[in-house]
């Protein structure tokens, strides 16, 4: 089963994941950003310099625009070199089946890789290493910091609100109605976890909507996008102003007004003012949880950022 990326779908359509009590007990967050997935989603997004293509062509041939990514890229190793070894150790029969069913042997290199030749595997190793070095390595420290901040925030939410409620607020296209998690996809199915739980993976690069890998081992994976604060301005900052843009980006993770003020480095009244303005414009939703007020992006807010 390939990695399935979410697309805009009619409300109610998509993947329904049934949880049992044991699944909730075994569901956890990834301990660190997972470099193979970060790289694959960055490649899939397509906004990389085409001057790189001659050096990463094997990877570009395997990761193409569309709803699916071959599942032989499934590696939840936090160390990139170990993840590369795991990808290259996937049995040739599984690689061939995925290529034939999803991509077709439309190039000499794809035919060579589907046949399992040592040379093609070495070429993919080189492409993976080059792509990671050029696309992700320069900002990997910032990726780690943003990932750690996201997991700390979500851990606190799980303690205060429960895991089911937390899962249902990871992204506007994910919802929780006990005992099921629903992910809006153009692909429709109902799957029971049967005690395995899920690995929940925040993704900092490339992903704009959730993705799933339901038959990854040892447990299925749920990916959702997190936007790291950007070091420099852009067209969005010209339209909204730098502070309001930082507030918008900060609310890719749900935050209280106090957390928002601390994250952006502004006063509490200023954070409240910006959150109110963004809510009035339809980019942010606000709800009360006990004595705190919590804010998060709406679907329209996600579309504005992405």
Automatic annotation (TrEMBL):
Name of the protein described by the UniProt record: Regulatory protein, arsR family
HTH arsR-type domain ranges (all copies): 238-306
PANTHER family from the UniProt entry: ARSENICAL RESISTANCE OPERON REPRESSOR ARSR-RELATED (PTHR43132), HTH-TYPE TRANSCRIPTIONAL REGULATOR KMTR (PTHR43132:SF8)
Organism: Lentzea fradiae
Domain of life the protein comes from: Bacteria
Gene3D superfamilies the record matches: Winged helix-like DNA-binding domain superfamily/Winged helix DNA-binding domain (1.10.10.10)
Entry-linked Pfam families: HTH_5 (PF01022)
Record's keyword terms, sorted: DNA-binding, Transcription, Transcription regulation
Gene Ontology MF, one: DNA binding
């Amino acid at each position: 089963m390939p990695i399935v990326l979410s697309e805009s779908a009619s409300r109610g359509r998509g993947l329904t994941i049934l949880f049992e009590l044991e699944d909730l007990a075994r569901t956890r967050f990834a301990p660190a950003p997972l470099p193979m997935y970060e790289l694959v989603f960055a490649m899939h997004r397509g906004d990389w310099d085409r001057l790189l293509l001659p050096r990463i062509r094997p990877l570009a041939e395997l990761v193409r625009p569309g709803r699916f990514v071959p599942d032989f890229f499934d590696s939840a190793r936090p160390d990139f070199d170990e993840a590369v070894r795991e990808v290259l150790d996937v049995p040739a029969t599984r690689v061939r089946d995925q290529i034939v069913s999803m991509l077709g042997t439309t190039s000499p290199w794809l035919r060579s890789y589907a046949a399992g030749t040592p040379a093609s595997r070495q070429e993919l190793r080189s492409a993976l290493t080059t792509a990671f070095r050029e696309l992700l390595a320069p900002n990997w420290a910032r990726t780690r910091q943003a990932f750690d901040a996201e997991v700390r925030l979500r851990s606190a939410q799980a303690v205060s609100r429960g895991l089911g409620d937390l899962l249902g607020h990871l992204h506007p296209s994910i919802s929780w109605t006990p005992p099921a998690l629903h992910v809006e996809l153009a692909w429709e199915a109902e799957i029971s976890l049967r005690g395995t739980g899920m690995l929940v993976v925040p993704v900092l690069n490339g992903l704009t909507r959730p993705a799933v890998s339901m038959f990854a081992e040892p447990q299925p994976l749920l990916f959702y996008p997190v936007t790291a604060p950007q070091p420099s301005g852009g067209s969005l900052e010209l339209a909204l102003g730098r502070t309001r843009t930082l507030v918008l980006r900060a609310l890719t993770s749900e935050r209280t007004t106090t957390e928002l003020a601390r994250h952006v480095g502004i006063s509490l009244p200023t954070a409240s003012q910006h959150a109110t303005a963004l809510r009035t414009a339809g980019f942010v939703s606000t709800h009360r949880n006990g004595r705190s007020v919590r804010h998060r992006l709406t679907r329209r807010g996600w579309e504005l950022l992405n």
